[in-house]
Amino acid sequence: MGEIFAGGPASSTRARRLSAFVHQTMSRARTVAVPYKLGEVVIGDDPFNGRREGLVAVKNGTFVGLQTADQIFFYDYRQLRRPD
């Protein structure tokens, strides 16, 4: 009959759990918190897209989708500001 070694799988499982925990923690640390909420009115100023005012419609990493009357323009969150 075959023998099952209890020590082998437990250590590899523990290593996988630790690796997954470290990976999740590092990905959360690298994620930038965009200071704008969905639906908030902001002004985007970019030399390529121009200056536009609209609502925050999409947040994807560091990019924010600014919805105007007919289109969505994507800006880096550092190019946005709240209206005065």
Describe the global form: elongated
Which percent range describes the beta-strand content?
Answer: 25-35%
Largest sheet: 5 strands, antiparallel
Low-confidence stretches: none
Q: Report the structural category.
A: alpha+beta
Radius of gyration: 23 Å
Q: Given the structure, what is the number of helices? A: 1
Helix and strand sequence:
HEEEEE
What's the number of extended β-strand segments?
Answer: 5
Largest sheet strand order: 4-3-2-1-5
Describe this structure in words.
The protein has 84 residues and is of the alpha+beta class. The chain has a domain at 41-81. Helices cover 29% and strands 35% of the residues. It has one helix and five strands. It has one helix at residues 7-30, and strands spanning 41-46, 50-60, 63-67, 72-76, 80-81. It has a five-stranded antiparallel beta sheet, with no helix packed on it. The longest helix is centred in the N-terminal third of the chain and has 24 residues, at 7-30. The chain is elongated.
